Amino acid sequence: MRLGLVRGARPLLGTVLRPRAAVSAAPARCQALVYAQHGEPARVLHLKDLERAELGHSGVHVKMLAAPINPADINMIQGTYALLPDLPAVGGNEGIGQVVEVGSHVTSLKPGDWVIPADAELGTWRTDAVFSEETLVKLPRDIPLLCAATLSVNPCTAYRMLADFETLGPGDSIIQNAANSGVGQAVIQIAAALGIKTINVIRDRPNLREVVDRLTSLGADYVITEEMLRKPEMKDLFKKVPKPRLALNCVGGKSATEMLRHIQQKGTMVTYGGMAKQPLTVPVSAFIFKDVKLRGFWMTQWKKDQTPNKDRLTGMILTLCDLIHKGQLTAPACTQVPLKDYRIALEASMKPFVSSKQVLTM
């Protein structure tokens, strides 16, 4: 089945959508998960056979190896995300690929290199594609595949939030909700490597002990439930660890309000998600008497801001790879699913209390 263009839309990155020309040799083909309208992913996503773009002088032919399913990917397909590609589009914003061939003008990459997207909207849920050189970042090939596939979103978000909003050092503490998320697990590990204590808030659940044990094994200092966060006994915890100067909020609603109660004078709360789909409620006293700062963070925007000069992006990636080499940063728990079984992965990724990230393999 051929895929037609929606009027006014741009072609899919790395894919040519045009009537088949009368040529002697058949054009190269690839498979991709494509959506031509917004809606529930299981309904609007389809595995399509597409014509791959020509290499040209500046193209990079990449064979995709693995690509995770992240909440932002789902929201994009649903049409509820802040950044929406033109339709039809290939799903996926993150993943690891291997360079197969490069155009004659490409200087920074060569066949065999591992690459990840430099920004969102690349469309990684596909077998292979031709991308432009500037849309890719080279990775060392000696890091584990799943670490590479899940590196460019969650660990980068965690790193930037720990580095950009408060000056933290060994012995300082931070508090975060959704601590078992991909970002939360990366925060725990990066903070531990820096000697920063973490107070990690999670929802109560049937397998609570299992989740607590996993986060502790990653380096979490304290793991508490949302209910415990609201109890007077929190005072006892702060006899063992200083009150946090930084709070990382991925939930919103009451969870964020309760975290605000525990941060230090002039502390900062950074919001990077809203899983509860509830607005932030901030007591007036937090502003007047504690002079707290409320900030937001979006990794996609940070990457766009680095477009004129990718040195900060590549420097951060190499720093994270160094942590991986030292065994201080690992991939989140992952379930690998073949691309053809994408519906199984989509269903699992949208279930509540699932701590395993679904990764499509090609």
TrEMBL record:
<dbReference type="InterPro" id="IPR020843">
    <property type="entry name" value="ER"/>
</dbReference>
<feature type="domain" description="Enoyl reductase (ER)">
    <location>
        <begin position="42"/>
        <end position="360"/>
    </location>
</feature>
<dbReference type="InterPro" id="IPR051034">
    <property type="entry name" value="Mito_Enoyl-ACP_Reductase"/>
</dbReference>
<keyword id="KW-0809">Transit peptide</keyword>
<keyword id="KW-0521">NADP</keyword>
<comment type="similarity">
    <text>Belongs to the zinc-containing alcohol dehydrogenase family. Quinone oxidoreductase subfamily.</text>
</comment>
<keyword id="KW-0560">Oxidoreductase</keyword>
<dbReference type="Pfam" id="PF08240">
    <property type="entry name" value="ADH_N"/>
</dbReference>
<dbReference type="GO" id="GO:0006633">
    <property type="term" value="P:fatty acid biosynthetic process"/>
</dbReference>
<dbReference type="Pfam" id="PF00107">
    <property type="entry name" value="ADH_zinc_N"/>
</dbReference>
<protein>
    <recommendedName>
        <fullName>Enoyl-[acyl-carrier-protein] reductase, mitochondrial</fullName>
        <ecNumber>1.3.1.104</ecNumber>
    </recommendedName>
</protein>
<keyword id="KW-0275">Fatty acid biosynthesis</keyword>
<dbReference type="InterPro" id="IPR013154">
    <property type="entry name" value="ADH-like_N"/>
</dbReference>
<dbReference type="InterPro" id="IPR036291">
    <property type="entry name" value="NAD(P)-bd_dom_sf"/>
</dbReference>
<keyword id="KW-0496">Mitochondrion</keyword>
<dbReference type="GO" id="GO:0005739">
    <property type="term" value="C:mitochondrion"/>
</dbReference>
<keyword id="KW-0276">Fatty acid metabolism</keyword>
<keyword id="KW-0443">Lipid metabolism</keyword>
<dbReference type="GO" id="GO:0141148">
    <property type="term" value="F:enoyl-[acyl-carrier-protein] reductase (NADPH) activity"/>
</dbReference>
<dbReference type="InterPro" id="IPR011032">
    <property type="entry name" value="GroES-like_sf"/>
</dbReference>
<dbReference type="InterPro" id="IPR013149">
    <property type="entry name" value="ADH-like_C"/>
</dbReference>
<keyword id="KW-0444">Lipid biosynthesis</keyword>
